[in-house]
Automatic annotation (TrEMBL):
Entry's Gene Ontology molecular function annotations: transmembrane transporter activity
Compartments, as annotated in UniProt: Cell membrane
Pfam families: AA_permease_2
Record keywords: Cell membrane, Membrane, Transmembrane, Transmembrane helix
Source organism of the structure: Thermofilum pendens
Main location: membrane
Membrane topology: Multi-pass membrane protein
Protein name: Amino acid permease
Transmembrane portions of the chain: 12-35, 41-63, 84-109, 121-142, 149-172, 184-203, 224-243, 279-302, 329-348
CC terms in the record's Gene Ontology section: plasma membrane
InterPro entries: AA/rel_permease1, APC_superfamily
Length: 375
């Protein structure tokens, strides 16, 4: 009898995976861009993004109840539309996973360069990225619980700076910043949603590890609800504090010049520095680096489950469906997926190109999953 994956994930660990997959580098880099196109209306845009995410999560949870298996998006498409649709969906999502993981590691190296000059996307930076990838892969081979506990710790560490900024920002709130509510018209909310939705990507992670969840039908549903509520509350309060506390003079910008915020490469750090809190600015940079590290740790774990599911159904090399006899993890799928991610890091040292490839590949599984519930 073949070895099966070990059901080690409880509500806390699964929720940490969900939150960890969503709270990545995006929340540290996108607030300025979102606010630049809609001003204070960006607060309502985040609420709208939360509602859209909640709808997608509901769809995935309902499908996950029916197919509580690792690599669930493949099974959703296959059962609804047949083998070919399942393969295209599963393969597209797998490409988005290992390419997207490379993009997240790139983000980590870029943020780490603030503390270690000379990293960026140089040969040294690439070497550091590959070493980190190898270390995180090794932890995940030792057991899903080890990987999940690592992610839980990193999730707590990455949330702390965001909560600090939110508290300081709300204490520095200027009501004048909230008027007018829609300086560029109410239609600008659509553009804010388009730019900002990257902050919410990763919500599908909860259903990707169904084979390793204790009492999956109950745990996945509760974890999904907790994940959406936690991330939505965190993002809404953070954007409100950012918009409400902007110190225009401190940033060297004209009063109410929201569009100029798009030029801020590190909006949260820049906003904190403008308020006179240099310590908070450095906390934001450190938090961004930790967020990227935590997010790629999460996706190293998750991308292997997609490869495992495809191999189990004969859609990838059969060896990838094997389970380590001692650790009961998809060790071969973990190693193979990390090798692909490493190849992307080494051969495509262009952050925008990698992001573009990952996002294009991700459109297919999202759309097919939504159609699967109606089928």
């Amino acid at each position: 009898m073949p070895e099966e994956l070990k059901r080690d994930l409880d509500l806390l660990l699964l929720t940490a995976i969900g939150v960890g997959a969503m709270v990545g580098s995006g929340i540290y880099t996108l607030p300025g861009l979102v606010a630049s196109v809609s001003g204070p209306l960006s607060i309502l845009a985040v609420l709208a993004m939360s509602a859209i995410t909640g709808l997608f999560v509901y769809i995935l949870v309902e499908l996950g109840r029916e197919f509580p298996r690792s690599g669930a998006l493949y099974y959703f498409a296959r059962e609804s539309f047949g083998e070919l649709a399942g393969f295209i969906t599963g393969f597209s999502f797998y490409v988005s996973c290992f390419v997207g993981t490379a993009a997240i590691i790139y983000s980590f190296v870029l943020y780490a360069s603030f503390f270690a000059e000379g990293l960026t996307l140089t040969p040294l930076g690439t070497a550091v990225a590959l070493l980190l990838l190898a270390a995180v892969t090794a932890v995940n081979v030792l057991g899903v619980k080890h990987g999940a506990l690592l992610n839980l710790a990193l999730t707590v560490l990455r949330a702390a700076p965001l909560l600090l900024f939110t508290a300081v920002g709300l204490l520095s709130l200027k009501l004048a910043n909230l008027e007018p509510l829609a300086p560029y018209g109410y239609g600008s909310i659509a553009l804010a949603i388009a730019f900002g939705f990257w902050m919410f990507v990763g919500f599908e992670s909860i259903v990707l590890v169904g084979d390793e969840v204790k009492r999956p039908a109950e745990t996945i549903a509760r974890s999904a609800l907790a994940t959406v509520l936690i991330v939505s509350a965190l993002y809404t309060l953070l954007i409100a504090s950012f918009v409400g506390s902007v110190d225009w003079a401190g940033l060297g910008l004209g009063e109410g010049d929201w569009q100029a915020l798009s030029s801020l490469s590190s909006p949260l750090a820049d906003a904190a520095r403008a308020l006179g809190h240099e310590w908070l600015a450095w906390a934001m940079v450190l938090g961004a680096a930790i967020s990227s590290a935590g997010c790629f740790s999460d996706w190293v774990l998750l991308q292997a489950r997609v490869a495992y599911a495809l191999a189990r159904e004969g859609r990838l090399w059969g060896r990838l469906s094997s389970v380590h006899p001692r650790y009961r993890t998809p060790a071969a799928a973990l190693l193979f997926s990390s090798l692909l991610t490493g190849a992307v890091i080494a051969l495509v040292p262009s952050f925008p190109s990698v992001i573009l490839i990952a996002m294009i590949a991700e459109f297919v599984p999202y759309g097919v999953s939504a159609l699967s519930l109606a089928a």
